[in-house]
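Reviewers asked in the last cycle whether our approach scales beyond single polypeptides. To address this, we selected a multi-component target totalling 667 residues and predicted its structure end to end. The input consisted of the following lines:
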Amino acid sequence: MAHDAKREDYQRLSLRYALELDKSGATDAARAFAAFGRRFAQNRDSLPQSDADRAFHLVALATEVIDYRLPFASDTQAEALIRRGRDLLDEAVSLDPSCWDALRMLAATRSASVDERYGYLVEQEDNVRAACEAERDRSLEELGLERGALGASIAMRPYWRWLASMAEDALICGRNRASIDAAERLLASDPSDLSDVRFTLAYALAKLEDEKGLNELASRYESISPLRPADDAWILLARCAVAHSLCNYPAARAMLVRLLESYPGGAALLVRQGELPDGEFARLRVPPYSEDELVLAVSEGIVLLQEGNDRSGRGVFGHWVANTVSELDPEAAKEAARMAKDKGASTS
Amino acid sequence: MRAWDELIWRCASRRREKIGPLSDQAFEELLLAVREDFEAFVDHDEDRAGLIVARALDAYRESCRDDDLLDDETFEKHRTARLAALHGECVRAQELCENSLDARLLAVLSEDPAPDQLLESLLGLERSFSGDTPPAGDAWDDVLYRPHLRLRAAVARTCLDTAHVRMAASAALSVMDASPTDPLGARNTYLLACARLEDEPAFDAALARFSHQESAWSHLARVLLLYKLGRMNAARRALHGYDELCRGGAYALLRPTYVEIYLPERPEVAPCSLEECALAVREAEPIIADAPDFIGWCQGFDWLVESAGRFAEKNDLDW
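The resulting structure, written as structure tokens, was:
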């Protein structure tokens, strides 16, 4: 799944449009709706919308800039993109002071440390939940049963993303129980896990070397994500890390083999263990089991890979993963070296 | 490690076993006799190996004396040479007696391998000596069993250093169970592991078990534990406690210094002294690094930074 700002922007306006159609008693709803797509793409301002909808549109634009363009920009472009992203978010907040997504994303750029932003998220959580729940109740009342479910989901999403950010920030700060707590609250609020917070939860459990908790999480997958079994890079890397922490090397190795089966061609990424900035709106949208997904999982997995004293500078588990993958796939080590060299050449 | 004392005890105990029961007073006299002329009493290869180790440790400690006067490069050269000398002697002792666990443990440690390799070697040693069963009562009282406790304590510390935290906790706990007086201070490793695992009940239980006796480790572990649990006011008070009750604690935390590897135990230092804080900070280093904003949070308290600065000035330390 994962959050999709553009799609959510579309969904918000289509719901609003449908509501307006109902009110106006339009007889030719099908035709009117056909016009919606065209107007959304070409003449957005002509559609009925609230300030909150307009603000969210700016968030969607900012997401495109910050999460999807900035990571690939040159240093000279980066500055302009950061400024543009911030301007869009500032404008979003001026339109809608409770545009939680914009506030959350701005907090990331304004905080001196992850810890500071985490503190802000914790402080505001109750407000965000109360506001989103009130909006959800309003939506359900206004939209009725059929559309209400989508309306309620859209109303709650800023809170879900808030909790997902809290879980991720807590994990980065070394507050693993708080990360688990935030993730579990999110799963309780959104049992079908639009945010894929179970991935973050898997890492937090691995940080506490909680083998039992990880096994339980894997068995909960069936109800959380019936279409996606517990073979994503996060849960496999988490289980690998726990086996490694218990010095159960055969089991850890078997998990790496499974990981490589789930992500064929991912060996070099596991040797290289690159880090990239987290998505500010939400975890980046990438196809399941793609190399890009493995890149995200490895980057978020730095908290597991880089822990402990290790002379290679990779961290104890990271060093072991790189060595073991190189043994399993000798070509991967060479490819990783090539990738590192290319990166070095492009940044120098 | 008081190698000579233990060696004399071991040697006298073996002699007592041979000649039959002795009164306490007679045993005291035997100890004195062994101390006077050790070589006359040595008739066991393990003690001959122990003699080599004790002399090698003396030589090693002697060579550390003037370290403070050396520049980095010369220090590194001296260090490599004295570790190599110690290693050579321990290997010689080991060749004389394969069963000398102290010699084998020191041979591994003095090679100063990478932490993950060290752990593998230590676990290998444990497997080789797994047949020796611990004595009843406090295992520390049996001088022949002490090397096993030292090895287990080293395993616990190395596990913590290499992010095998549950293993660190269980190894430390097993040392505490085998020797409830815990002269090796395995509880310190255990407290740090509890902090890393954010396990407050286990932390409190361990402190209660030792009558809430505090140390640089307990103070520091408490700060880390509460910080990680997000109890920031309590964490701030704990940091204040660490600063107040550990002499030079703030300085040790904000200006971590090089700490030599333990051969094979932690050096004996005064409780809550600067030296003890330096050891605690070194052992906690992987946990501190795992909470990347922790030091920044500490530095945000002016009273802590000022305390460290005052300590540095008073003691003529770099700041």
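Chain A has a mean pLDDT of 92. We regard this as preliminary and will revisit it once experimental data from Aim 1 are available.
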